[in-house]
Design brief:
With about 475 residues, the chain is of the alpha+beta class. The protein folds into three domains: about 130 residues, Alpha-Beta Complex (Dipeptide-binding Protein, domain 1), CATH 3.90.76; about 100 residues, D-Maltodextrin-Binding Protein, domain 2, CATH 3.40.190.10; about 220 residues, Roll (Dipeptide-binding Protein, domain 3), CATH 3.10.105.10. The chain is about 30% helix and about 25% strand. The protein contains 14 helices and 16 strands. The strands form four sheets. Strands 10, 11, 12, 13, 14, 15 and 16 form a seven-stranded mixed beta sheet that branches. The chain has a four-stranded antiparallel beta sheet with strand order 3-4-6-5, with helices on one face. A three-stranded antiparallel beta sheet has the order 7-8-9, with helices on one face. Helix 7 runs antiparallel to helix 9, helix 8 packs antiparallel against helix 10 and helix 13 runs antiparallel to helix 14. The longest helix has 18 residues.
């Protein structure tokens, strides 16, 4: 839990547990590409997508015991907007919210926005009880003490911060979805950094599901009738963000031409597939015909020479950071180091705990920052907006834009695209395409590959499906033991 337990501001791997505890007004089904009811049973829009009315589900209770009403949902959304953390931008177009009765929310927006889609976001769209700690500023402290105030099927029983058995959830008896039939009543999240250990735990039945494991260990389960394997495309990719404050555009282009993308795919043994631009397939704005990079050592060397580097000239020394414990990122870092060495660039790679790596990337001292920053990215809802708004829009100080890229023209396009998506999807997709062409030309970052999920679980468990809109989330209430 990197960012704590506040559903308004958490913006990292906490999604894995929070999606069991909290719910949103709507839910997105990536398989059918449909927005479905969750805490809202129906919704309509008017005034060119500037007014949205949501009708809420009756008989829903927060884990605190209080009923979920329109007034309570409004309070949660307004608090999330006020705190301005996580993905609170999903509510950025909201000007006012009316509650004409106990089960109706009416949103008045400052500009057209696809609010029903945004309300399904995997961060900061949660509806929660703002009165859980008696109101006021005490709520965040209460939540960070290991409590929750959601409406989901499970509630926190125990949080052992930083420990192997980190989080234990138990069923919420008054869950509106009910407990008829067979369900898991307890969910334990166990942090096991070593893939070999995780594999042994699954084989012995001490764990039921492995969320992340290297391809070699995953493949070792093949032929074991006690274990089911799931391989599925995702909306997650591994980004390489290049330090635009240190590296000119020719050097950045040279780096991207030097990388053997197909070599990375081959080395991942099914855990990754080739990217086109930064938007994965299945999302609006994905195009297969973009001017993507492929390995071209001669072009890389020529660009480096134009920038004053290479044989007989200055040697270019670069640094790369990646997250420790992630074997796939380690493979990628090793390949990039070798690829750059082939064009006379010396790359130092450093494995860091995510919090340390992120802090280094955001450091106020530019000398402390890396030249290449590896991190995974995924959308906050079924739209590629977060890649652009979070990792490419001008930021000062930097938060997730760890290429430190600033392009006022691109910023303008980013601010246009969501209102356009609500009124003219075709035009919005073309704008996403144009923005990706700019990024490929300017080379502040690159998608090194799209992640292919490789999960392993006990074969006796049924009901598991992958929903790319909620990355790495297992909706445990849907499973049958």
């Amino acid at each position: 839990m990197v960012d704590g337990w506040d559903p308004a501001t958490e913006y990292s791997d906490g999604i894995i547990a929070m999606s069991e505890m909290y719910e949103t007004l709507t839910h997105y089904d990536a398989a059918t590409q449909a927005i479905e009811p969750e805490l809202a049973t129906s919704w309509t829009s008017a005034d060119d997508a500037k007014t949205w009315t949501f009708h809420l589900r009756h008989g829903v209770y927060f884990h605190t015991g209080r009923p979920m009403t329109a007034q309570a949902a409004k309070a949660a959304i307004l608090r999330t907007i006020k705190l301005a953390g996580g993905a609170s931008y999903v509510w950025s177009a909201v000007k006012t919210i009316d509650t004409p009765d106990a089960y109706t929310l009416v949103f008045h927006l400052s500009a057209p926005s696809p609010l029903a889609l945004e309300a399904s976001a995997d961060y900061s769209a949660y509806i929660y009880d703002t009165q859980a700690a008696g109101g006021g500023n005490a709520l965040t402290s209460w939540l960070n003490a290991g409590h929750d105030a959601g409406t989901g099927p499970y509630t926190v029983q125990k949080w052992n911060k930083g420990q192997e058995f980190e989080v234990t959830l138990q069923k919420f008896p008054k869950y509106w979805g009910g407990w008829t039939g067979a369900h898991f009543t307890t969910v334990v999240f166990r942090v096991v950094p070593e893939d070999t250990t995780a594999a042994q735990l699954l084989r012995s039945g001490q764990v039921s599901f492995i969320e992340q494991i290297n391809s070699s260990a995953w493949s070792s389960f093949k032929g074991d009738s006690a274990i089911s394997l799931v391989s599925s495309p995702s909306w997650q990719n591994l980004l390489g963000q290049l330090n635009t404050q240190r590296l000119g555009v020719k050097v950045r282009q040279a780096i991207l031409y030097a990388i053997d993308y197909q070599g990375i795919i081959a080395a991942l043994h099914g855990a990754g597939v080739t990217s086109s631009g930064i938007v994965p397939p299945g999302l609006p704005g994905h195009f297969a015909d973009l001017p993507n990079y492929s390995r071209n050592q001669a072009k890389a060397a020529a660009l480096l020479k134009q920038a004053g580097y290479g044989p007989g000239q200055k040697k270019l020394n670069l640094s790369l950071t990646y997250t420790s414990g992630d074997s796939n990122e380690q493979v990628v870092a090793t390949i990039i180091k070798s690829d750059l060495a082939a064009v006379n660039v010396n790359l130092t790679t450093q494995s860091l705990a995510w919090t340390t790596q992120w802090a280094k990337g955001k450091s106020s001292s530019t000398a402390q920052r890396q030249d290449i920053f590896l991190e995974y990215w995924w959308p906050d809802y079924a739209d590629p907006y977060s890649w652009f708004a979070n990792t490419l829009e001008t930021e000062s100080p930097p938060y997730f834009n760890l290429s430190y890229y600033s392009n006022p023209s691109l910023d303008h396009s980013i601010n246009q695209v969501e209102p356009l998506l609500a009124t003219n999807k075709t035009a919005a997709e073309q704008l996403y395409k144009n923005m990706q062409v700019t990024i490929l030309q300017q080379a502040p970052m690159v998608s090194l590959y799209n992640v292919n999920y490789q999960y392993a679980l006990l074969s006796q468990i049924s009901g598991f499906t992958v929903n790319q809109a909620y990355p790495n989330v297992v909706f445990v209430h849907d499973l049958k033991p």
